[in-house]
Amino acid sequence: MINKNDQLDQVSEKIVEIKSRKKKIDNTQKQIRGKQISIAMRISIELIIAIIIGAILGWYIDKWLDTKPIFFIIFLILGIVSGIKTAIASSRQLYEDNYNDH
Amino acid sequence: MEPEAAKLIGAGLATIALAGAGIGIGTIFGNYLSGALRNPSAAPGQFPNLLLGFALAEATGLFGLVIALILLFVV
Amino acid sequence: MAEKSGAPDPMHQFEIVELVEFKLFDLNLSFTNSSLFMVFSVALIILLTLFTFNGRGTVPTRLQSIAELSYEFVGKMVRDNVGDEGQRYFPFIFCLFMFVLFCNMLGMIPYTFTVTSHIIVTFALAIVIFFGVTVIGFVMHGISFLKFFVPSGVPKALLPLLVVIEVISYLTRPVSLSVRLFANMMAGHTMLKVFGFFVAGMFFSGNLFIAPLGVAPLLFITAFTGLEILVAFLQAYVFAILTCIYLNDAIHMH
């Protein structure tokens, strides 16, 4: 009897261990798809809003320091670059669920 | 021409950029569909690429929309 | 839907009407139709979660299973995207998701007011989330939370430029969160209204050729309303899941 209890304990420990290993990969296909669609919507809007925020920041710093239009151009370019960087980083997030499955 | 009228005409012309967005999105989805119909088992693997292409084409179209809004409300 | 001088006005549905005036030293704290629909949304959520339970029965009623499904849905979303340390933020994410979902869905009923179609409402939600997540990051990691803005493996000369770029892209998060929800809601409702004006104009144009063709925009409105209901749910889901992703970034620092 004690032997069987030990075996049962071992088996339940193993089950708990395997379950905790599998926890991250437990998404259904639908959930992954939903997450990917939300990341895609985020990419398109963040690209544009990064440029707009760069432009607004540059415009207001120009108004404050009275130097037209140097800061506007600088921050516009910085906004474009940061938008593209965010898009690339978000697109990397798009692929990570795919590479976990295949 | 008064500036008010010029603003409205300019904003209207700027939305022509959305035609490019429509063409781009249609092209991306059309190519994905024709590829998925030829090789259905490879289709889920290409789904992130589809979403990425859609997001970037949409972003390009939204640029034109932003210019239209700036013309209407800021300038 | 009174028209001014006969011209169709699709923006009239977004007007804020003060129902109970309440001004306090220059601050206008009146109870508006926006507040009324927020109260409706919260009341519906409370009704759904608190008063649908079947007592001691093991078989849930239909409404109870809707409440349990939404709890499971948000629970799974938080567990998968934030991890186990994020369980303490589950009540906030649940309230956020249910509030945005119910506000969006209430707007699909005719003659109601869509709360989330105003940029100030969505921006208030997004800025609270932004400040909350930043404060959580600082509390959990101390001052080394600033390392979040320094990407690894970068030559030292480019570092100042890259830090500014990372800060700008971090600042776009609340703006993009709010603009996405606001733009989708306002654009959807405006388009429905414009096509409604087409239908009314075509039916009452008095021209015997155009009048029957008024059915075409009507069919389009029907199909588009279905799409709008899907968009309402999807936008609430996107809002909640992006909040979970930003929370995960703050807690786990990449």
TrEMBL record, chain B:
InterPro entries per the UniProt record, alphabetical: ATP_synth_F0_csu, ATP_synth_F0_csu_sf, ATPase_proteolipid_c-like_dom, F/V-ATP_Csub_sf
Keyword match Transmembrane helix: yes
Sequence ranges assigned to domain V-ATPase proteolipid subunit C-like in this UniProt record: 9-71
Membrane topology: Multi-pass membrane protein
Annotated site location: Reversibly protonated during proton transport: 58
Protein's UniProt keywords contain Cell membrane: yes
Gene3D superfamilies: F1F0 ATP synthase subunit C (1.20.20.10)
Primary subcellular site in the record, as a coarse category: membrane
Keywords for this protein: ATP synthesis, Cell membrane, CF(0), Hydrogen ion transport, Ion transport, Lipid-binding, Membrane, Transmembrane, Transmembrane helix, Transport
Subcellular locations according to the entry: Cell membrane; Membrane
Single annotated GO MF: lipid binding
A GO CC term assigned to this protein in UniProt: proton-transporting two-sector ATPase complex, proton-transporting domain
Pfam families in alphabetical order: ATP-synt_C (PF00137)
Residues passing through the membrane, by range: 12-30, 50-74
Matching HAMAP family: ATP_synth_c_bact (MF_01396)
Family per similarity comment: Belongs to the ATPase C chain family.
Role summary: Key component of the F(0) channel; it plays a direct role in translocation across the membrane. A homomeric c-ring of between 10-14 subunits forms the central stalk rotor element with the F(1) delta and epsilon subunits. F(1)F(0) ATP synthase produces ATP from ADP in the presence of a proton or sodium gradient. F-type ATPases consist of two structural domains, F(1) containing the extramembraneous catalytic core and F(0) containing the membrane proton channel, linked together by a central stalk and a peripheral stalk. During catalysis, ATP synthesis in the catalytic domain of F(1) is coupled via a rotary mechanism of the central stalk subunits to proton translocation.
Full protein name: ATP synthase subunit c
Organism, scientific name: PS1 clade bacterium
Gene: atpE
